[in-house]
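Hi P.,

Sorry for the delay on this. The queue was packed all week, but I finally got your sequence through. Input first:
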Amino acid sequence: TNAAGCVHTTTLNLTINQPTSETITETACSSYTYGGQTYTASGTYTQTSTNAAGCVHTTTLNLTINQPTSETITETACSS
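Then the structure:
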């Protein structure tokens, strides 16, 4: 009851927002840039940010970096 002796009712409408996540798999040559960060080595990287609901958003980047290749060919030829 309230101070006047009447019934007092409080209603709480509660929304529980959930964190979100995503996984990205990429393959690149030499380097890869994601979220303002440049990666030059293969690996699994995690970035966190805030989603539209104000909760944590986690991005997992599974990255393969392939290095450029080169070769030298030496030939011998006879003049004709």
